[in-house]
Write a structure and sequence with these properties.
Elements (H helix, E strand, L loop, with lengths): L7 E2 L2 E10 L2 E8 L4 E7 L2 H4 L2 H15 L9 E7 L2 E7 L3 E3 H6 L5 H20 L12 E4 L4 E3 L23 E2 L17 H4 L7 H16 L9 H10 L14 H10 L11 H24 L2 H4 L6 H4 L10 H39 L4 E4 L3 E2 L7 H15 L6 E2 L2 H4 L9 H8 L3 E10 L2 E10 L5 E10 L3 H15 L6 H8 L6 H14 L4 H17 L4 H18 L3 H18 L4 H13 L3 H14 L4 H13 L3 H14 L4 H13 L3 H14 L4 H13 L3 H14 L4 H13 L3 H16 L5 H10 L3 H14 L21 H9 L5
Parallel strand pairs: 11-13, 11-14, 12-14
Antiparallel strand pairs: 1-2, 2-3, 2-10, 3-4, 4-6, 5-6, 7-8, 8-9, 14-15, 15-16
Helix pairs in contact: 4-6, 4-9, 4-21, 6-8, 8-9, 13-16, 13-18, 18-19, 18-20, 19-20, 20-21, 20-22, 21-22, 22-23, 22-24, 23-24, 24-25, 25-26, 26-27, 26-28, 27-28, 28-29, 29-30, 30-31, 30-32, 31-32, 32-33, 33-34
Length: about 800
């Protein structure tokens, strides 16, 4: 029974009824507390008394509220008020895709746009481990501004349609749509073959359902039809859909391939991830847009010229009735002469250009180090500008495949030091070095730069830039362009775009992004928290700023390690941000690495390696991609592959302390203690305050039975890190195995307090218990991590030295299997 208008439920006032379905009524309501219109879904009283139905009603809200994506409906609240169970959501002012389809045929560009946005939403959901199970036109809303919203997450299991039943049009809670009564509609018509057979489902069932929706949008009919689920299951098993081209002239071979692959009956032959489907749809849309622009650029008269035929080139006898032949013949000869002359001219120009290009290319510089801009403002608040502009120039120039650019972590070793550019260049093995100073005067930024040839010390270029603070984005782009020109790099149109195409056009967004990276690079809990705020403000200013979403994803991905926030809270947010970045720009190597790191923490290993390899294919000189691919190989037990990748990362970023630490770590795993010790000492010589090098050195000394030196290194690690839980665990382990039990127990108590404050994960306590010989307690803590899905550190037990004594216990093998790794 529908609620009367003006009914008050808590702070919500009913305004009108929007729709109804098997799981409840949907109303337009007014939130009197926040003064806004919302959609209110209310579970009928008779169903609320059914505990199973109530549980499933709550399931929808929890599933959707875990997602944060512009194409997924936003859940505001799930509540029980005066025995009324409700979900309050954003109000989507528009119509369902079903209504859009019924109102008239959809044009192909709109169809692709709807499919791309829906696939983007599903990719975010799948990244968070959520399968929709009920993708159909009724659950896809199209706003008036063209934004797509996917509804009803978690509802597919709420309506049980047993075999032999008529397929019901009352799909779970959908808006009222009036259709031809002879057309059978409902959830079952969009089911995948495995779903119709009642088999276990994964994300690929949503891909099939989206393929059905895409087929229906293009052709105006369903690929598979049946009056009952039993008949439909047979159709899904035995029949192939008719080709799109049979019903639509707009259907290109590429669109046919995409839909066909999405509708493969065997899910192993289907798209394996929604991200792959999304990429193909985006590529097709871009291709069609390009072809459309190309067609518009051709003059109308050129389009109407008939194609040449053999008749036009044949020789005919002169006609006495026509004088035109005598007139056009000399004209044709003159045109031929002009064409031949023009061809010769083009050939000469091409030869000259080639020789000039070859000569200049021989002098082109192919490697460079961009040193941190010196902040000459005597204002620490301007550090984010000097650091951020430097980092942006490095990131932009790194996109150019013919240019080797030293990574940030290497060049920032020279920050604040008096340096000789030629000496730095020789040390880093590059041909040119850029240095500079940044001065902030009120709302003005003055940057002076110098590019030096390492071979002879000659100045290749010097520049001074005076920009408004509000144009800091234009400043760094201008410097990037001028560097590429002075290095005599011959850039293609695509490469020119790489220099600036990664950036936002919104100055405010860019400045917030620079602040975010500045705080992120501090690698502390406080710094990461501040970074999240800055990145969020960047994308608030520009919702299509891909790098802003990458920063947000990176921050949420490491929040557990640096601030102790459980990954169950952070990973869905990280996954949503990474997916949004990739949806905006799938060519960002950084976004694919971020995505891989998140998949790694979710223990989804095949997707992890896929993302790292994609990043390397996009930018083979990106050291972070090789670094994390090395960590993946280490988790898989492929130590030679791991060593190869970390060595490649070190070639690209030779002074990175953390990459050097990982090189030492693999030497330790291989029991090459001399190499491990030498590597750690080399890092400490360059960066004595880097705790990771002291930590690895402590384990190397421990393995070499140099116990006192080992404990001294562990203690130094703890001091340098500000008593971070990660390093306290290693110190506690070292104290325990060297017989200092009382001191180890004191560390254990400190870690327990940190765990209660969410500043530690169970693995750190397990390490100390392992050192004390308390295996049961160690496994208890590790199992807590597994239950909490503490993904960032738990896979490290595969090689972490504190757990050597656990590896013969059957529980160790079970633990690894639980996270998808081989013992």
């Amino acid at each position: 029974m529908a609620l009367p208008l003006d009914t008050q439920i808590g702070r919500y006032q009913i305004r009108s009824r929007l729709g109804a379905g098997g799981m409840g009524e949907v109303y337009l309501a007014w939130d009197t507390k926040l003064d806004r219109k919302i959609a209110l879904k209310i579970l009928p009283t008779e169903l609320a008394e059914n505990k199973d139905r109530l549980r499933r009603f709550e399931q929808e809200a929890k599933a959707a509220s875990a997602l944060n994506h512009p194409n997924i409906i936003t859940i505001y609240e799930i509540e029980q008020i005066d025995s009324v169970n409700l979900i309050a959501t954003e109000l989507i002012e528009g119509q369902t895709l079903r209504a859009s389809m019924l109102s008239g045929s959809l044009k192909l560009p709109i169809i692709l746009d709807i499919a791309i946005q829906t696939a983007s939403a599903l990719s975010a959901a799948h990244g968070s481990g959520i399968v929709h199970r009920d993708i159909k036109p009724e659950n896809i809303m199209v706003r008036q501004d063209g934004i797509v919203k996917v509804l009803d997450f978690g509802l597919a299991k709420l309506t049980d349609v047993s075999s032999g039943e008529t397929v019901s049009p009352e799909a779970p809670t959908r808006p009222v749509v009036y259709t031809d009564p002879n057309v059978v509609m409902g959830t079952a018509l969009y089911m995948s073959p495995e779903q119709a057979r009642g088999r276990e489902l994964d994300a690929r069932t949503d891909i099939f359902s989206l393929g059905v929706v895409l087929y229906e949008m293009v052709t105006g009919r369903l690929p598979f039809e049946g009056s009952t689920t039993e008949v439909l299951a047979l159709v899904l098993s035995d029949k192939e859909p008719q080709p799109l081209a049979r019903y639509s002239r707009e259907a290109s071979p590429e669109l046919e391939r995409i839909v066909s692959k999405a509708l493969r009956k065997d899910r192993e032959q289907r798209y394996q991830t929604t991200k792959d489907l999304l990429l193909d749809l985006q590529n097709l849309k871009q291709q069609l847009e390009f072809e459309s622009r190309l067609e518009r650029s051709v003059p109308p008269e050129a389009r109407s010229v008939p194609p040449p035929s053999s008749a036009t080139s044949s020789v005919e006898p002169p006609s006495t009735s026509s004088i035109s032949g005598a007139i056009t013949s000399p004209l044709k000869r003159r045109r031929w002469s002009l064409a031949i002359g023009l061809s010769l001219l083009i050939l000469v120009v091409a030869i000259f250009s080639y020789k000039w290009y070859s000569a200049s290319s021989a002098n082109a510089i192919s490697s460079i180090a961009i040193l941190p801009l010196l902040n000459a403002s005597n204002d620490a608040d301007s550090d984010y500008l000097s650091d951020g502009i430097t980092e942006s120039i490095i990131a932009n120039l790194s996109q150019l495949p013919q240019l080797k650019v030293m990574a940030r972590s290497t060049v920032f070793h020279f920050k604040g030091k008096v340096i000789d550019p030629r000496e730095v260049g020789r040390q880093l093995g590059v041909q040119a070095v850029m240095s500079g100073r940044l001065l902030r005067q009120g709302d003005h930024l003055i940057v002076r730069t110098e590019l030096v040839n390492v071979a002879d010390g000659a100045q290749l270029w010097g520049g001074e830039y005076d920009h408004e603070l509000s144009n800091v984005l234009g400043l760094q782009q201008e410097i990037s362009r001028e560097i590429s020109e002075k290095l005599r790099l011959r850039l293609t149109g695509k490469e020119r775009k790489l220099l600036t195409g990664r950036d936002t056009t919104n100055e405010e967004a860019y400045e917030f992004y620079l602040r975010g990276r500045y705080f992120w690079n501090k690698r502390t809990g406080e710094g990461i928290t501040k970074a999240i705020d800055q990145f969020q403000q960047a994308i608030d200013r520009d919702p299509n700023y891909a790098l802003g979403y990458v920063g947000l994803a990176d921050s949420y991905a490491v929040l557990e390690e640096y601030a102790g926030v459980p990954s169950t809270e952070t990973l869905p947010k990280a996954r949503a941000a990474a997916d949004r970045a990739l949806a905006i720009d799938n060519s960002l190597a950084e976004a694919h690495v971020s995505s891989g790191i998140i998949f790694q923490q979710m223990w989804r290993w095949s997707e992890t390696v896929e993302e790292y390899n994609r990043a390397i294919n996009l930018n083979a000189n990106y050291p972070t991609a090789h670094h994390f691919l090395s960590i993946y190989f280490r988790a898989q037990g492929q130590l030679d592959d791991s060593l190869r990748e970390i060595k490649r990362a070190q070639e690209l970023d030779p002074l990175s302390s953390v990459i050097g630490q990982n090189v030492a770590e693999i030497s330790l795993i291989k029991n090459d203690l001399n190499s491990a010790i030498a590597q750690c000492q080399q890092i400490i010589e360059l960066d004595p305050n880097f705790p990771g090098a002291h930590d690895e050195l402590g384990f190397a000394y421990l393995k070499a039975r140099r116990n006192e030196e080992a404990i001294a290194e562990f203690q130094k690690t703890v001091e340098l890190s500000g008593r971070t839980a990660r390093y306290l665990g290693d110190l506690g382990y070292g104290l325990a195995v060297t017989g200092k039990r009382a001191e180890a127990l004191a560390i254990l108590k400190e870690l327990e307090d940190k765990y209660e404050r969410r500043e530690a994960v169970g693995q750190y306590l397990a390490a100390v218990h392992t050192g004390l010989g308390e295996k049961d307690k160690a496994f208890a803590w590790l199992e807590k991590d597994a239950e909490r899905r503490s993904g960032i550190r738990l896979p490290f037990i595969k090689w972490w030295f504190a757990f050597d004594d656990l590896r013969r216990d059957p529980r160790y093998a079970d633990l690894l299997k639980g996270i998808g790794l081989k013992p």
